[in-house]
Amino acid sequence: MKCGNSCFPIKKPQLNKVAMEKNEESQINEKELLDKVIGLLNPRKRRYHGKDEPQVQEVVFKVENNSELRYVISCLLRLCMSTIDNENELDSPRLPFLSKDDAVITILEMVIDILPDDQLDSYDRIEKLLLKEEE
Amino acid sequence: MKHKKEQLKTLKEIQDLRKNLTGLLGNKKTIDPKGNHVSFEVRNNNHLLMQIRSLLHLCVFALDGDGMMLAPKNKNASKEDSITQVLELVLCILPDSQMYYMDKIDEVLSKLENS
Question: What's the pTM value of the predicted model, to 2 decimals?
Fold first, then answer.
């Protein structure tokens, strides 16, 4: 491209004043649009662990208290156990109270909690905005 | 009198610690002052989806005895990978701060008792 341009200089069409103004106007519009889109974003809480580390985002899920946190953890471990040891249906004597089905339900609840609701919502709204502009 | 002063000081110490420790449920540094939210970290949305996927994989594997996924998209789901992911998640949500806090309380209380 570079070579072609230097060998055969193409005469650029002179922009008249009206066109320039129009151009400026559209730039302003684009800036506004960008601001709007940024306003619609729903960013998660970010955290930096140091200069060289990439930033991480915080995902939260709900528990009642610390005991429930422990219960969620034990359900997660329980699922891992029954996945590893699928044929052996004998329940571990250490966890007689925790049935596989209960564990699955708890974890599914947690999954519902951590689904990216806000992000998908932002996405929908941004898409709506941008598609409306295009029309 | 002196003993009471020490007690107050210890109480203050415990309260300050609770206020300033990150990761506890429901103090100033958490998102939700009621203390109902546990947080863990992901790199981006894709990473979050990967975590969710592994959790669901485990649910499927646990419910279905053969550990077979029928949909073509899930053919690559491997037990080991899903388990690794979920164990990593467990490591992230272990109650580190809570245990640290308990140890500290234990420490200051026993110091008070022995003094």
Answer: 0.75
